[in-house]
Amino acid sequence: MADLGTFWQSFGFAVQSTLRDFFGPSGSLQIDTVVPDIKTAENFCGICLRHIDLWKFLAIKRKERGQPKLMDDKYFVIFIDEFDALLHAENISIRDSFLGVLHSIKTTDNIYIVKSVVGIGTFNILSLNTQTKALSPFNISDAFKNPNFTPEQVTTVFKEFATEYKLEIPDDVIEDICLNTNGYVKQTDWHAGLVNLCGRAIWSYMEEHGHILNGKLSYREWKIFSGEHLGTKIAEYRTFDKMIKSLSNESSRNANNLLRTYFLGFRGDVKIPIGPKRELANFLVGEGILLPDEGTGSGMAFKMSSPYVDSIIRRRILPELDTSAPMTAPIKRPNKTYDVLRLVSDAVRYFNKDILRNAVTRAFKTPKSGKVEGASL
């Protein structure tokens, strides 16, 4: 949104609609009071004041039901999903106004009914601040990491899904989902959001192709679907859509170069020393692309968050930034085959030179013994 007034009307309508589920003639609490309109920052602050009728009637209702009194009589907990959208607000006055209001509520909590405000988003919400950097409502001690799934939980979730929708999902499909939502054998937790997206994608595929599946999602069908089709489903999700737009900007080229040089295609830890590269790595952590792992001394290790994220960057971001490519299609031989060595020779001219220079130390496929036979290019 580009307009501050529109933002507060939209946010206020969401808060008002939620409160009306509980208050008013049709509310579940059966408290006959009116939820006022919320169209401005002042309206929002007003609805959070402790002394208004809304909260007084709630206190009376709780007393009638014999419920224990809350500590300091605070009833209102606000959860805000996609909180990192404030980072990309076209009008910085939206961010400054909203964070300023939350800061006011937090620092003058004796007059407000708000017990807590929970912002949900990627790591970069920890760096959210106003333009003056003086009114942040949060600090690092307020951060909580959302727990991921264990392997047993992933299996349980998909078994329950299969039972509910009468679809057989073999163990090798579930194992493949585990591998690609995390990709690290030594890890014991899996990205809950990506696991959920895989489930949603399977449901969508089942709705469209149920007549072909015949009640079973075979491993072969899954691998076909989990290529471009699943990538599209993941990319459409708001969190990943924002990530793609952020990295597709020319201003993110250095961050993409860091990914290409050190991380893409590699599932291990990479130590990045303090300096410009560390800043780029921290930016990528904020976008949900890298995972941090505290190291020792001046080094800090990072790794790709998952193979699925790796694939999104390769397929949807890098091709948009690097448009150089052969202008003509490969020519087939008379027997309809290709000269593979010639294809490789032509393709190498378009490869990123930094990656080629690092091939000696960063090649990930090596023979168990002996040398690979082949002519020099």
From TrEMBL:
Entry superkingdom: Eukaryota
Listed InterPro entries: P-loop_NTPase
Protein name (record): AAA-ATPase-like domain-containing protein
Species of the source: Jimgerdemannia flammicorona
Higher taxonomy: Eukaryota, Fungi, Fungi incertae sedis, Mucoromycota, Mucoromycotina
